[in-house]
């Protein structure tokens, strides 16, 4: 949650953690690694499930949704962090 800083939940998470643990600091390298690792694991499972579905219309719909997600949201977030 902390990696998307403009997200309200992220700000709440950061505030609670800093109030609860005096020595809390954000380990952005670990968060980026974990987010990447988790994303790849989920993507692998998603693709495996998609490839076994026999409904071509369903597959086309889900692939379009994935494309919109990757290019429309995730790519934008990654580019913001690359620039910072």
Query: Using only CA atoms, what is the Rg?
Result: 17 Å
> Span from first to last CA?
18 Å
DSSP strand count: 0
Tell me roughly what share of residues is in helical segments. Answer: over 70%
Determine the strand fraction and express it as a percent band.
under 5%
Order of helices and strands: HHH
What is the count of distinct domains? 1
**In one word, what is the shape?**
elongated
**What is the typical, i.e. mean, pLDDT?**
79
Question: What's the helix count?
Answer: 3
Weakly predicted, low-confidence segments: none
**Main β-sheet: number of strands, strand sense, barrel status?**
none
Structural class: mainly alpha
Q: What's this model, at a glance?
A:
This protein has three helices and no strands.
Tell me about this structure.
The structure is a single chain. With 84 residues, the protein is mostly helical. It has one domain. The chain has helices at residues 8-20, 28-52, 56-83.
Secondary-structure blueprint:
Elements: H1 8-20, H2 28-52, H3 56-83
Descriptive key words:
84 residues, mainly alpha, single chain
